[in-house]
Amino acid sequence: MSITTESELIGMKKISEVVGITLKLMREYAKAGISTKELDEYGGSILKSYGAKSAPYETYKFPGYSCISVNKEAAHGIPSEKKILKEGDLINIDVSAELNGFWSDNGGSFIIGKDIHHHQPLVDASKQILQKAIQNIKGGVKIAEIGYLIETEARKSGYKVIKNLAGHGVGRSLHEKPENILNYRVKSNQERFKKNTTVAIETFISTHSTIAVGLNDGWTLVGNKGGYVTQHEHTILITDDAPVILTTANEIWN
């Protein structure tokens, strides 16, 4: 959305803080032995305490308050009582919500307990690439150039990007224009980031796959060639200079 008034900025800051805090507390709550359903219910209770509503449920009737993807799930994992977290699991939590007509989105991948399966380099690459991408965004910058940066940095680290998952505009709804802030460059895309707009920037860094494909449950996505995927996401306000990161409360870079 385009921020034109102080009240709109306050609204975006508030919901962004809520989803950021929820993601941070869910990360701290996640441990071996609990189900992803329990983790999701905990996150849902935090959103409700702020009066916020789950964006995936409100928008798509997603069967959970948040998307929780484990190990070889790339995105949109359904919280389940049968899915028990184990030491060394690679997990991604994506929290988006609505409050007072404003919407915000954030996410992050991390490891449960000790890194016994050596996923940390993939997690770190995703975090660092998101940071570098956001540092290079300001009004007038081509969206395709940020995609090029993300894919180039992924390749330098020995990884690939998922090409059919993307960042997006956010604010008055969960997904707005620009709809495809991709993790690679489409040379024909001449669209530029606009000052005073809010967007969700997210990385999808992968060990083997370049396309996410759906499972039979109608929601969960996995890589087309297997392997693992990490995602990190912030909602930002674009300026003429460094962006304002609205979801800093999630502390995904700490």
From TrEMBL:
<protein>
    <recommendedName>
        <fullName>Methionine aminopeptidase</fullName>
        <ecNumber>3.4.11.18</ecNumber>
    </recommendedName>
</protein>
<feature type="binding site">
    <location>
        <position position="168"/>
    </location>
    <ligand>
        <name>a divalent metal cation 2</name>
    </ligand>
</feature>
<dbReference type="InterPro" id="IPR002467">
    <property type="entry name" value="Pept_M24A_MAP1"/>
</dbReference>
<feature type="binding site">
    <location>
        <position position="105"/>
    </location>
    <ligand>
        <name>a divalent metal cation 1</name>
    </ligand>
</feature>
<feature type="binding site">
    <location>
        <position position="105"/>
    </location>
    <ligand>
        <name>a divalent metal cation 2</name>
    </ligand>
</feature>
<feature type="domain" description="Peptidase M24">
    <location>
        <begin position="12"/>
        <end position="240"/>
    </location>
</feature>
<keyword id="KW-0031">Aminopeptidase</keyword>
<feature type="binding site">
    <location>
        <position position="94"/>
    </location>
    <ligand>
        <name>a divalent metal cation 1</name>
    </ligand>
</feature>
<feature type="binding site">
    <location>
        <position position="202"/>
    </location>
    <ligand>
        <name>a divalent metal cation 2</name>
    </ligand>
</feature>
<dbReference type="InterPro" id="IPR000994">
    <property type="entry name" value="Pept_M24"/>
</dbReference>
<keyword id="KW-0378">Hydrolase</keyword>
<dbReference type="GO" id="GO:0004239">
    <property type="term" value="F:initiator methionyl aminopeptidase activity"/>
</dbReference>
<comment type="function">
    <text>Removes the N-terminal methionine from nascent proteins. The N-terminal methionine is often cleaved when the second residue in the primary sequence is small and uncharged (Met-Ala-, Cys, Gly, Pro, Ser, Thr, or Val). Requires deformylation of the N(alpha)-formylated initiator methionine before it can be hydrolyzed.</text>
</comment>
<dbReference type="Pfam" id="PF00557">
    <property type="entry name" value="Peptidase_M24"/>
</dbReference>
<feature type="binding site">
    <location>
        <position position="76"/>
    </location>
    <ligand>
        <name>substrate</name>
    </ligand>
</feature>
<keyword id="KW-0479">Metal-binding</keyword>
<dbReference type="InterPro" id="IPR036005">
    <property type="entry name" value="Creatinase/aminopeptidase-like"/>
</dbReference>
<feature type="binding site">
    <location>
        <position position="233"/>
    </location>
    <ligand>
        <name>a divalent metal cation 1</name>
    </ligand>
</feature>
<comment type="subunit">
    <text>Monomer.</text>
</comment>
<dbReference type="InterPro" id="IPR001714">
    <property type="entry name" value="Pept_M24_MAP"/>
</dbReference>
<keyword id="KW-0645">Protease</keyword>
<comment type="similarity">
    <text>Belongs to the peptidase M24A family. Methionine aminopeptidase type 1 subfamily.</text>
</comment>
<feature type="binding site">
    <location>
        <position position="233"/>
    </location>
    <ligand>
        <name>a divalent metal cation 2</name>
    </ligand>
</feature>
<feature type="binding site">
    <location>
        <position position="175"/>
    </location>
    <ligand>
        <name>substrate</name>
    </ligand>
</feature>
